[in-house]
């Protein structure tokens, strides 16, 4: 009887093995570490100090500036993303298939690299307008991708019925299609707003005093780290409010009865508008993609002719690969128990553990870095400004991507095969290794590649937590750009883009499979 219980096969929703559950709790605790420590650090300052910092006129102005930036970037990104998606998916725009492939590529260029390209070419292009334009050019794919996907899936019959009832083409789009696209637009706008609010590198290079830049300046300029902690927690609060606001808006979306009959819509003939529309699309891609790469190439050529510090460049590249590689490995291993619980043992506890791992996704990299600085100095001083604390920051920041990949990959593997292996005498681990792991491995590998890519580009947490005397490509670029040494900075940016091609190619290869 006891033997039969040990060999009972795992079932979806069945009670989770205790070791797996304990591992999931441990991972969730690590993910919540920065938030918890930041709350404790702020609370220790006392209500009077917190109220004094929050009541400063400078704090109110800072909140206003950051919200204006987030709002401006969101609006411009929505306009660009929706317009480009409509042109590519619903019109007869010449070359729209090629444009559809190129449109998401600005996501591969870090925002601080794009800002470097603009500020090195036009030094006077700074402040709020510059930050709004540059971040919008980097972020519009967050809107373009979901809107283009939604336009592809939408059944055009409803819009055709509206036309038959006397609506103009614009009226039918506004009253029917736009309402159906609203959830996709809102989701993309949320990502854009969160990105604009948490961005550090671009706003710093463009000399705009947003939240992250002021927090970093406060941290660097004062021995009293309380203001930085309070402002960091205030930034987290704004992030949560924006997320809740988007969720409230999303619940007002349009419902549809049944799956509907999806068919491709007839392309809208642009006629005399084809040339202006194509020109506008090419101008957008030129500003978002061609210009940053061209500027980077120009300054890299200038740097090569003036001489490159090759030992420093090679060392920075090696540090980038090694540190990001450790981050990807640790995040993927940590994601395994949470992803397995979510895919194979769904319950209230597994849902809570999975949601806890998303805490880091809502935190700006600067806030995570700041919290881990406090944690490292007070609790684990042996790890402060050494590799383990930086890898821990990568784990917190990018764990959600790894968890999502593990969960999706494991769900693709048939439960029945694992059950059959258990009935044939395999233990839980052996059954997983011999049946589920071979099927889930490509998806898990894609998640690791995504973490590697994002960790290679990460800047603010790396600036705060990197080992003493260690440069990555991102920190070297930021350091050189800070003293206007553009020719010296460009090789680091170009090398970063070239290295980022490898995990990006791995992701595209995985998607094709």
Polypeptide structure, described:
Helices cover 77% and strands 0% of the residues. With 513 residues, it is mostly helical. The protein is globular and about 70 Å long. Mean pLDDT is 83; it is low at 1-11.
Task: Give a topology summary.
Layout: H1 2-6, H2 18-43, H3 47-54, H4 57-90, H5 96-102, H6 111-121, H7 127-153, H8 157-164, H9 169-198, H10 201-205, H11 211-221, H12 226-250, H13 274-306, H14 310-344, H15 348-357, H16 365-378, H17 387-412, H18 415-423, H19 428-457, H20 460-465, H21 473-482, H22 486-512
Give helix and strand order, one letter per element, not per position: HHHHHHHHHHHHHHHHHHHHHH
Q: What's the overall geometry? A: globular
| Percent range for β-strand residues | under 5%
- In percent, how helical is the residue content? over 70%
Number of helices: 22
Radius of gyration: 25 Å
Per DSSP E runs of 2 or more residues, the count of β-strands stands at 0
What gap, in angstroms, lies between the N and C termini? 44 Å
Structural class: mainly alpha
Q: Low-confidence segments, ≥5 residues, pLDDT <50? A: 1-11
User: How would you state the average pLDDT, rounded?
Assistant: 83
Q: In terms of quaternary structure, what is this? A: single chain
The major beta sheet can be summarized as: none
């Amino acid at each position: 009887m006891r033997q039969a219980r040990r060999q009972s096969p795992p079932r979806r929703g069945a009670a989770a093995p205790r070791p797996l559950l304990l591992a999931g709790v441990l991972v969730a605790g690590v993910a919540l570490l920065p938030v918890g420590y930041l709350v404790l650090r702020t609370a220790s300052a006392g209500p009077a100090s917190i109220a004094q910092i929050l009541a400063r006129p400078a704090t109110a102005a800072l909140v206003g500036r950051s919200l204006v930036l987030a709002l401006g970037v969101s609006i411009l990104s929505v306009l660009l993303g929706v317009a480009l998606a409509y042109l590519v998916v619903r019109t007869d725009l010449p070359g729209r298939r090629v444009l559809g492939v190129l449109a998401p590529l600005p996501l591969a260029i870090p925002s601080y690299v794009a800002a470097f390209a603009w500020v090195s070419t036009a030094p006077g292009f700074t402040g709020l307008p510059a930050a709004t334009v540059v971040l919008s050019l980097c972020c519009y794919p967050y809107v373009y991708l979901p809107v283009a996907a939604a336009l592809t899936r939408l059944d055009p019959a409803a819009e055709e019925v509206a036309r038959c009832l006397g609506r103009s083409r614009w009226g039918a789009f506004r009253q029917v299609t736009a309402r159906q696209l609203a959830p996709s637009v809102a989701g993309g706008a949320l990502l854009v707003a969160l990105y604009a609010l948490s961005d550090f590198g671009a706003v710093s290079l463009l000399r705009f005093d947003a939240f992250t830049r002021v927090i970093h300046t406060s941290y660097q300029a004062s021995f009293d780290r309380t203001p930085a902690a309070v402002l960091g927690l205030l930034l987290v609060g704004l992030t949560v409010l924006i997320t809740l606001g988007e969720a409230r808006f999303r619940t007002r979306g349009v419902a549809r009865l049944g799956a509907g009959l999806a068919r491709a819509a007839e392309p809208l003939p642009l006629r005399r508008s084809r040339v202006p529309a194509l020109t506008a699309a090419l101008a957008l891609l030129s500003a978002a993609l061609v210009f940053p790469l061209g500027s980077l190439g120009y300054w890299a050529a200038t740097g090569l002719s003036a001489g490159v510090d090759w030992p420093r460049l090679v060392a920075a590249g090696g540090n980038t690969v090694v540190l990001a590689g450790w981050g990807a490995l640790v995040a993927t291993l940590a994601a395994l128990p949470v992803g397995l619980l979510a895919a194979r043992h769904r319950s209230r506890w597994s849902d809570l553990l999975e949601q806890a791992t998303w805490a880091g996704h809502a935190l700006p990299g600067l806030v995570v870095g700041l919290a881990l600085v406090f944690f490292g100095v007070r609790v684990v001083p042996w790890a402060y400004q050494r590799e383990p604390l930086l890898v821990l920051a990568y784990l917190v920041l990018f764990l959600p991507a790894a968890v999502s990949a593990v969960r999706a990959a494991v769900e693709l593997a048939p439960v029945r095969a694992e059950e059959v292996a258990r009935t044939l005498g395999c233990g839980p681990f052996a059954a997983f290794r011999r049946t589920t792991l071979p099927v889930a491995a490509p998806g898990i590998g894609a998640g690791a590649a995504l973490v590697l890519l994002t960790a290679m580009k990460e800047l603010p947490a790396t600036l705060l937590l990197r080992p003493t005397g260690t440069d990555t490509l991102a920190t070297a670029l930021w350091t050189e750009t800070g003293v206007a040494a553009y020719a010296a900075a460009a090789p680091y940016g170009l090398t970063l883009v070239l290295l980022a091609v490898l995990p990006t190619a791995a992701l595209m290869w995985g998607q094709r499979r």
